[in-house]
Amino acid sequence: MSTTPTTIRLDDDLRKELNSRLDAAGISLNTYVTMAAKQFVIQNRIPFEVIVPEKDQPTAKTKRAMVLAEAKELGLIPDDSTTFTEVNKMMASLDSEDTNV
Q1: Are 68 and 62 contacting, i.e. CB atoms less than 8 angstroms apart?
Q2: pLDDT tens per residue across span 46-63
Q3: Any idea where the domains of the chain sit in the sequence?
Q4: Per-position b or e across 26-52, b if 16+ CB within 10 A of its CB
Q5: Between the CA of residue 79 and those of 32, 36, 45, 82, 86, what are the distances in Å?
Q6: CA 82, 87, 93, 94: dihedral to nearest 10 degrees?
Q7: What share of the chain is helix, strand, coil (3-state, %, to 5)?
Q8: DSSP of 52-90, one letter per residue?
Q9: pTM of the model
């Protein structure tokens, strides 16, 4: 099996932290990248959970709207949402509506 040299660019601080943790695990950066690549090919998905940093989490208001939408979709509460056939009427309703969820 032949190999091809590959270059990746990492933020200096990220690379230092990554190398520190990989060293503690006894794994080189090259081995880690190779393992991740092989698992991606085998599983046909990212082989680990992707966690969104806290700052990118939905706001409380967005979370409430998501729960409300899911409850309506599941039939747990009636979907009394207004429907529109004309865009200008929808926009007028959105402009006048209280946006508290």
Answers
A1: no
A2: 999 988 777 767 888 989
A3: 1-50, 54-96
A4: eeeeeeeeeeeeeeeeeeeeeeeeeee
A5: 49, 44, 36, 9, 20
A6: 100
A7: 55, 0, 45
A8: --GGGSPPHHHHHHHHHHHHHHTTSS-------SSHHHH
A9: 0.50
